[in-house]
Design a protein that fits this description.
about 350 residues; alpha/beta; TIM Barrel; 2 domains; 8-stranded parallel sheet; two-stranded antiparallel sheet; 10 strands; binds zinc ion
Length: about 350
């Protein structure tokens, strides 16, 4: 289903479920584990609905960090199966309703150690477990994300390939263009393609402006389907990834990122640039909410289920057109219209 969708058109991804559910109060910042899929499934379901109605073609199972290494931190490693199965059930139901593809989701394990070959086996085992439980509920493909070691990406790819389902492998780059084990991005993606990844891409850490030059290099390096999933938190050339932005003199991650959220217009502009660049899978990551996704979809010329509620500023009593204006105070009227100096 995902390959069919990619063959026919650009595929729009979904947003940053982990950060949005944290903001809504259902994920604890720190462990960032997805036990909410068991404890408040209706909340997870609603967010999938929100992304689907905003125009996402793919919904990702909310299984980020639903692996043993992370569940152990909150004493819930015994719930590994239930969390993965439940998350996939929830997302599959919503995807069916909105004709979306379902992505199983794998994240970096925090287990993999490039200096310890014996960690390969355990990393693979943890991926296999998640894959087994998610695949049992029927996913269309798997996304492995926020992976910053080429070695771990290889293991994730092999694990996904063993299912026969399509693999989307995305790498994250923080301060430079190499994986943490020193592979430059072109070589990293060429290798993953050669090893059979159907889709390769860059995700998380960087905002669209700081990620797109890397995406362009990726586009030039490989044929076939590529993906971009930047964060919707503003970064700078000096601080190119969102976890090191500073607010009030200290690092803002993860509790004070609100002032860095990009506007929907910026995310819409990013979607257009990605299209021009030849990106096949245009998604987003941390900080990206349904309103961002809807703007991206609309920038790409789509009408989404919730386009019904898209802005109709012409109907606003101050910002609107002349048939809808209600001028009660001249100063407020001109200030809000941005016409302060024009008189
Ligand atoms: Zn992210």
């Amino acid at each position: 289903m995902i390959l069919e969708k990619l063959k026919n058109d650009i595929v729009i991804g979904d947003g940053g479920a982990l950060f949005e559910l944290e903001r809504r109060g259902y994920v604890s910042a720190g462990p960032f584990t997805p036990e909410v899929t068991l404890e408040h499934p209706e909340v997870v379901r609603q967010l999938h609905v929100d992304f689907a109605r905003a125009g996402s073609d793919v919904l990702q199972a909310f299984t980020y960090y639903a692996h043993e290494e992370k569940l152990k931190v909150i004493g819930m490693e015994g719930k590994l199966k239930e969390i993965n199965v439940n998350a996939t059930k929830i997302v599959s139901e919503v995807a069916k309703e909105y004709n979306c593809a379902v992505a199983g989701c794998l994240a970096n394990t925090w287990m993999y150690n490039p200096k310890d070959k014996s960690s390969d086996k355990e990393t693979r085992r943890q991926f296999d477990k998640q894959i087994e439980y998610q695949a049992s509920e029927g996913v269309d493909f798997f996304i492995a994300e926020t992976i910053d070691y080429q070695g771990e990406a290889r293991i994730a790819l092999e694990a996904v390939k063993s299912t026969g389902l399509p693999a989307m492998i995305t790498l994250g780059f923080k301060y430079n263009d190499k994986t943490l084990d020193g592979v430059v991005l072109e070589d990293a993606f060429k290798e993953l393609k050669d090893l059979g990844a159907e889709i390769v891409g860059i995700n998380c850490f960087r905002d669209p402006n700081l990620m797109m030059p890397m995406v362009e290099r990726l586009r030039n390096a490989v044929d076939g389907y590529i993906a971009a999933q930047p964060v919707a938190f503003r970064c700078t050339h000096e601080k190119p990834y969102f976890q090191i932005q500073e607010f009030n003199g200290h690092v803002a991650f993860p509790l004070e990122l609100d002032p860095f959220v990009l506007t929907r217009t910026e995310m819409g502009d990013y979607a257009l640039k990605a299209k021009e660049m030849g990106v096949n899978y245009i998604g987003a990551c941390c900080g990206a909410d349904p309103h961002h996704i809807r703007s991206m979809a609309e920038a790409l010329g789509r009408t989404t289920p919730n386009s019904k509620y898209s802005p109709k500023l012409n109907l606003h009593p101050i910002l609107g057109d002349k048939d809808h204006l209600k001028i009660r105070d001249e100063r407020i009227f001109t200030e809000q219209r941005g016409e302060k100096d024009s008189k």
